[in-house]
Every structure is written in C-alpha cells, then in structure tokens.
Amino acid sequence: MKMTEIKGGVTSAKGFKAAVAAAGIKYKGRTDMAMVISERPCECAGTFTSNIVKAACVQWDQKIVKDGGPMQAVVVNSGIANACTGKEGFDACEATAKAVEDALGIPFGTVGVASTGVIGMQLPVEKLKAGVKMMSGSLSDSGEAGTEASKAIMTTDTVNKEIAVTFEAGEKTVTLGGMSKGSGMIHPNMCTMLGFLTTDISIDKSLMQEALSEVVKDTFNMITVDGDTSTNDTLLLMANGLAGNEKITSKNADYETFKEALFYVCRFLARRMASDGEGATKLFEAKVINAKTKEDARTLSRAIVGSNLSKAAIFGCDANFGRFLCAMGYSGAIFDQNDVELYFKSSEGKLKVFDKGVPLTFDEDEAVRIMKAPEVTVIADMNEGGEEATAWGCDLTYDYVKINADYRS
Amino acid sequence: MKMTEIKGGVTSAKGFKAAVAAAGIKYKGRTDMAMVISERPCECAGTFTSNIVKAACVQWDQKIVKDGGPMQAVVVNSGIANACTGKEGFDACEATAKAVEDALGIPFGTVGVASTGVIGMQLPVEKLKAGVKMMSGSLSDSGEAGTEASKAIMTTDTVNKEIAVTFEAGEKTVTLGGMSKGSGMIHPNMCTMLGFLTTDISIDKSLMQEALSEVVKDTFNMITVDGDTSTNDTLLLMANGLAGNEKITSKNADYETFKEALFYVCRFLARRMASDGEGATKLFEAKVINAKTKEDARTLSRAIVGSNLSKAAIFGCDANFGRFLCAMGYSGAIFDQNDVELYFKSSEGKLKVFDKGVPLTFDEDEAVRIMKAPEVTVIADMNEGGEEATAWGCDLTYDYVKINADYRS
C-alpha cells in the first residue's frame, strides 16, 4: 500500500473547516472550544465509552450514529465534561447544536457535540452559544485552523495530537486526518478519549463503522494511563465523499487500503496519548508474542502496561520484571509461567531477564541504560501459539499524583 | 455475642509459640524470619491468591490445605517472595520445612511456608535453614514473641498488625489471634496479603474452611492498595483444639460465634493493611448501600476505592465526586446514575454532593474539612435494593511512587 503522511489534521481532507474560540468555560487565557464542519453532510461512524455512566454528549452523539447519521459538524469544549449532569446536561447539548443551526443553517440533528474536563458540573450554556457564534464567523480550511482545534480540546495534555495521510482509492487521492486529546482517565474500553477523524473518501456507512470498530480494538483500546475508563470517551469519523472515488460498497482493495490508513492514523494518535499520559516521562510499550489467542495477547499486554507497580518500576528504571509477570498472572489469561520469556528493549538495546520459569542474572547497569530511553518495551514471549498484540501506556510518576490530587482548582 | 478484644496476636491462643530471626535474607539490621508453632497438630484452613503466577510457597501451602492437613508450624520470611523461581524455588520450600523437622521433630509435610518481598529472585536456602535452627531454640508463648513475629514479616509496612480476641464456645473460653502484613501489591482477590491466624478452638476442618472463605469475602477481599494482585497472597488459620470446647461439627450457635470473632479479627487486620498502604496518609472507605445485590455492592465499593483518580482526589482533599461515579460506572455493575446519592463522611461531618443525577452545590471549605480526617468514607446510596458492602483502600500519594520506583535497591 502506498500511503503518505502529510502535515495536517482535521482540515486536511477536502471540504472540512475548523475554528476555535476562547469561551471562558473554565480556563482563562486559552481557547477551550473547537468546531469542525464539512461542506456537505457526512456518513459517520463512532465508538463510545463502555462506562455505563455516560456523559450527556456521549448519549447525544450515540443517537446520531445509531440513527445512521448524517453528521455535518461537531462542536467540542474542554474544561467541563458535561457528565453526571442529568436532564440539564442533555439540554445543553441540544442548545449547542441549535446554535450551530442558527449560525450556519446546518440541521441541529446532524451536529455532534463532545466535552472533556471536570465531571459533575453544568456547562455554561450561554458561553457555549456565544462561542459557536464566534466560531461560525471564522471557519477556515487551513492547516493552522486544524492545529488550533487540536489545541483547544486539550485538558491536562502537554502536546496537541494531530496527523493526516493521503492514499489512493479508486484512482483518486483520498485524505484522512484526525486529532485527539487524552491524558488522564485513560483506560482501554471502546476508545477512552476524544478523537475526531475527517476524510473525503466515499464509502458505505456500515463498512466504515466496521473498519473503525476493528481498528479501535488494536489502537485506542490498547492504551491506558491510569485504568480509569472515562464517562466521555468518543471517537467520531466523518466522511464527506468529496475525494470523488468510486464509492466503496464492498470489502475490496480500496476498503483494505482505507482500513490500513485508518489503522495508521489511530495508532499514531493512540501512542501519542499514551506517551503524553498525565505526569508521564516516557512511553511504556508491552508486546506479547506467540500467545494462544489474539484476545489473550491483548489481555496480557494491557495488564502489563496497566499495573501501577510496573509503571512505577518503569519510572524508576528498575528492571523488576517480577511485577510484569505478576500483572500477567492476574490478567485473566491462562498460561504457564514455565513457558514465558521476558525481555526489556529500547533504542539502547535488548536484554533477556526471565527464561521459562527461571530468573536470569543480568547486568543491572545495562538494564538501567535500556530503561532510561524515552520509549521502553517489555516483550513477553509466551511460547504457546502464534498470536501477538501490543499495548501502550506510560510510567507512574510524582507528577501524576500532583496533577490529580487537585484537578478541579 | 460476648467477645473481648485483648492485647495479643498469634501466641495468644493456648499452645502456640513464636520466634524470630535476623537471617540476613535481604535487609540488614532487622528481623526477617518468623516461625509460629503449635504444641500439637492443627486443623488448618487457608485462602490463597487467584493470580495464576503463584509463588512456590503458595503452591506448597495449598497442597497441605487441600490434602486436609494437619499443619503444626509455619515459617515466614520477608525480603524475597520466592515467586517466579521455578523448581529451585519449590525445593527451597521443602528445605525450609525439613529444617523444622530436623530441629523440632515436626513432620515437614505439616510445616507451612510463606514468603514476601521481591519477585524473581531465589531464596538463600542456607540462611533460611540457619534461621530456622536459631528460632527453634527461642520459641516463646509470650505476647512479645507474637509481636516480634508480626514485625519480622513486614516489608514496606510502616506498622505491625496483630490482634487477639476471646469468646465463649461450648462453655469454654476460646482465643483467636492473628497477624498480617501487606502494604503494596494489594488488591482483592482471595486474600491479597500474608495473614496467620491461630486459635485453640476445636472445630471440624471443613466448617472452619467454610467460615474462613465466607469471612474473607467481606474483609481481606474488600481491600485494595494498588490494584495489583500479588503472587504470594496467603491466609492461614490453624486450630489446635486446646480450649477444650465440645468440637463444633455443625452450624450451631458456637459456629456462629466463632465466625463472628473471625470476621472481627479479619476486618481489623484488613483495615489496618489498607490504612498502611504504601505511601498512604489516610484510610479511604467506600460504603455502598441499598444496592440490588450483594455482589453489586461489593463490586461498586471496590471500584471506588480502587480508582487511581479517586485515590488522588482523597489525597488532595478534593471533593471531585464525579470520579467516584465514573469508577462505579466502569465497575461492571449495572445501575442508573439518576438513582444514586453520594455523600462524603468522616469524624468531621457528613456532606451530600450528588442527588439522583443532579450535582449539588456545596461548601468547598466544609468538604475539605471533612476530607482532611484520617479516615474518609464515601457513601453511595444506590436506591435500588437492600444490599450493602464496604471496601477499604488508601490515598494515592507521592510516596507511593517513591516507594515503588526503586523497590529492589
């Protein structure tokens, strides 16, 4: 497959524009609202949190996706999550969507909304409506507008997250771009963050949903920061068909190409979120190979990056491999520790530390050197099958505690 | 029921003695081995980690309990966990038990062993054997010997944990005592720590196991420090019958009295472990009331005290109640957020913060005052049934990270 990563984000695909506003929802002196619109109505797909305490905006978007769309715009705010807010919270979603209809004539039932921030606080609806009005007058398809949007949706994130790729489908050049935010309350279960993907491909809606759901399993659902599945996780994909390719209506070569591009984009954004986990100093990757089943491989790799003790050891560059094996042991997957081999790996080298039930003697200095790299991988070779999976997390640091001991103030 | 808490621990019941040794297994200048023996063979019961990566000593003890006992002694070491150590680790268990037989004539098949400390490191068997020999010459039934034993098994614990009670059964005075250790790698799944209970009651073995398994569900299985289920969790209960009561062979009044005493002792030790969680500054209790089922109540309360974000909020005295509701939402229990009421409670007062889907406006200063107490309770009234459960954990602090970033050195 020929795919090219280009500089860009949600405004890269044809017919998409974005704008931001500093609406004063919670933060001072920074943008806290973003809007992305398409020139024309889009087929849409989405995945949402499996937390049964769902934010009002999640319920709003789920209805649009479930009813089959279309979706033409999405309005996002940071600062307040609009979760645990009862009927008043749901009314706020409707008011925001109606403000888009008032300003741009886009039917309010095709306007997605998403929020991230403090739970259990009502949105200041008048500020949101004013923000929508402001943004409606400053929409732009420039790369800068996309970048600004990816910054406006940040909460405790330290870097913005965006990407775009182009590829060929039906002899046309198709563009797929996206942005996401997520730093805390991140744990694999549907998608665990806010993410917005835009593309000009022409594709059947249910095929698009199928591709997205499959890709999410090995990308956004494989990251964790703190084991807390958010009430607001939302990933939306909008396709407006402006690339002019022959519409994809079966799992042909174009479908596979699209899915591959989707995987690339989602994996990029997921890894960026993991390495920007709250307080994180490094990306912590777990690769489980030769597992009995794919589900085992996923479960085991997620358990490794999800363990507080493993994460603290990664922070301290302490090759305390027993903690990784311990986490695998309580993950729920069944295996024999006497089959397992464990390795630490990074740009600085690779070190075997455990060999089929037997702890190896290794050079501690070498272990520290390997673990000091900005990306550290633990490899677990299960020696019992042919399946593999990779999960991503980050280290557990003093700053994680600092950030979360008083998030609201 | 008439039960009296007395000063004491594992040596309080008739016929039990203890001794300790500084065997130099890992620590310098402190005791790191303890031995508890009974004058005569005991009926024994036990619960063990559900982690499938089980330490060698867990496998050793499980076999004794499964084969129906008896058990007459238990040897415990701190510093090295003897987990992930293959055949060499299992041989170390046998060598330790045989050292007891050599020194005291107690058959090695009736000697339990337990270890706690670093995973993935072999035990120094000669040091253990020397320790057993030393301890065999200094066994004592004094309260001080019990206290010293409870100190020798500590790892990152900051306080020792012991308790004893007396009660009447069959017109005889029965004594039940115990000690435990546990501070990190603590998460409810069988029993999640080392605990040793001794009693002089006379009771049928299978009834004793049944009582222990039931009590564990609402005590040791309801605590969490970091969500990491250890490879070494072991709770052993030994009963030597020296109280002279008529043997309990049915679920009569004496059985109920015994079970109640067992609950009291286990709950005490469990709470002590939670409040002494690594780096903890306070006990964090979650009480779920009016739940649909007992299992729901347990699941919900454990999710609240298990959430990193909730624990960080408790540390920061931040009444960020949405995090508690979020944790309940991803716990797996099914409920409607519009039925839930949430309260913070401590010795300083009680404050309602969420009322059936609606966040309440409350006095932040009052919330901080309540949350500054050394024991803080979150109450979730589900308003959908009559079942309740309580779980215990601790706050997540800078010191947790500090302790675990470089535990091995």
Keywords:
2 domains, 9-stranded mixed β-sheet, Ubiquitin-like (UB roll), homodimer, 409 residues, alpha+beta, 6-stranded mixed β-sheet, L-amino peptidase D-ALA esterase/amidase, 11 helices
Please characterize this protein's 3D structure.
The structure is a homodimer of 409-residue chains. Chain A has 409 residues and is of the alpha+beta class. In chain A, 33% of the residues lie in helices and 28% in strands. Chain A is built from eleven helices and 15 strands. In chain A, strands 1, 2, 3, 4, 5, 6, 7, 8 and 9 form a nine-stranded mixed beta sheet that branches. At the A-B interface, helix 2, helix 8, helix 9, strand 13 and helix 11 of A face helix 2, helix 8, helix 9, strand 13 and helix 11 of B.
The structural domain count of chain A equals 2
CATH superfamily of the largest domain in chain A: L-amino peptidase D-ALA esterase/amidase
* CATH topology-level fold name of the largest domain in chain A: L-amino peptidase D-ALA esterase/amidase
Rounded average pLDDT of chain A: 89
Number of strands of chain A: 15
Shape of chain A: globular
Largest sheet of chain A: 9 strands, mixed
Give the helix tally of chain A: 11
Radius of gyration of chain A: 22 Å
Helix % of chain A is: 25-40%
Q: Quaternary status of these chains?
A: homodimer
CATH architecture descriptor text of the largest domain in chain A: 4-Layer Sandwich
Strand content of chain A: 25-35%
H/E series of chain A, N to C?
Answer: EEEHEHEHHEEEHEHEHHHEEEHEEH
> What structural class results from the helix and strand content of chain A?
alpha+beta
Largest interface: A-B, 67 and 66 residues
Alpha-carbon distance between the two ends of chain A: 49 Å
CATH class placement of the largest domain in chain A: Alpha Beta
Low-confidence stretches of chain A: 188-192
